[in-house]
Amino acid sequence: MNAVIYAAPTIEPISLSELLLHLRYESSDIAGSLTTTQSILPGSHVIADNYTTHAGASVDVLGKTALVNLNAGTVGAGGKVDAKIQESNDDATWTDWTGGAFTQVTADNDNAIQEKEYTGTYHYIRVVARVTVAACEFGADIITVNQESVEDDLLNDLITTAREHVEDITRRALLTQTWDYYLNDWPSGNAIILPFGNLASVTSISYKDTDGTETTLTETTDYLVETNGEGFGRIVLPYGESWPSDVLYPSNPIKIRFVCGWTAASSIPAKIRTAIKMIAADLYENRESQSNVTFQENVAVQRLLASCRLWGEF
């Protein structure tokens, strides 16, 4: 089969979190997962009856867990600190986050830490504070927790490898991808069968004559497309039409570009997704050697995929 991938899938059948759950494993490194940023620097802060003088630095929290600490030192006689969390999507226009106000700091509760978890959905957060009556000592930290595993790159590679191996076994393209399929001659019959199953569309059909001049056929006029569900898609001639009669170029004269595969991971049959998890787990557990336990020999994988294979010669 002379087929070349033109656009690879942009997603995988299973996510990293799904594989980690399957492995019952999380290898997060605390030093690499936590980042602390001083939004308001610790120190003595002057009286300012507004929330602009003591406006802290912003932190990008998109896709992360964020904890905000207000670390209060000694407040001046009668001093008060009102601090709150603000949020923004552009790091320029700020609004108060509902529920983000800390308990007012006075002499009765100073020298203590207050903590709030940010559960909003904005891109950036910061801490702003107002100081009244007397200067007060305090600072505000924003701690972000990146849930990335120290082995995420390896595990993501194993997911891709497992998906490609399942595609080899089943002879399917699992997720949306674009292929160029080359033929040396037009078929003797009225149909061209396309590989990989789950045909979504035919982007183009073109051919070159002996001079290398390329001609592109027109869908519905020169050919029809049968997607045929999860089976092999076909290109068929309309009634009364025939394939071009030009003498063809000697090397890969006919090119069919088509899109195939399921459009979402959730649409892939559960047994295929389970097989991918099992293969990835075998590769992870036996990463140095596959001499004893191999995913090729995994009977459960073979049985799961047996009914998913496409049969046909290309």
Could you explain how this protein is built, in words?
There is one protein chain. This protein is 18% helix and 35% strand. With 314 residues, the chain is an alpha+beta fold. It folds into two domains: 139 residues, no CATH class; 116 residues, Jelly Rolls (Sandwich). Helix 1 packs across helix 4 and helix 4 runs antiparallel to helix 5. It is elongated.
Provide a concise account of the structure shown.
The chain is of the alpha+beta class. Helices cover 18% and strands 35% of the residues.
Note the main attributes of this structure.
314 residues; alpha+beta; 2 domains; five-stranded antiparallel beta sheet; 5 helices
How would you state the average pLDDT, rounded? Answer: 92
Shape: elongated
Number of strands: 17
- Summarize the biggest pleated sheet: 5 strands, antiparallel
What proportion of the residues is helical, as a percent range?
10-25%
Provide the β-strand percentage band.
35-45%
SSE topology string: EHHEEEEEEEEEHEEEEEEEHH
Number of helices: 5
How many angstroms does the end-to-end distance come to? 5 Å
Topology:
Elements: E1 3-7, H1 16-23, H2 30-33, E2 34-45, E3 54-55, E4 59-60, E5 65-75, E6 80-88, E7 95-101, E8 112-118, E9 124-132, E10 136-145, H3 152-170, E11 177-183, E12 191-193, E13 199-208, E14 214-216, E15 224-226, E16 234-236, E17 254-260, H4 270-285, H5 299-306
Helix pairs in contact: 1-4, 3-4, 4-5
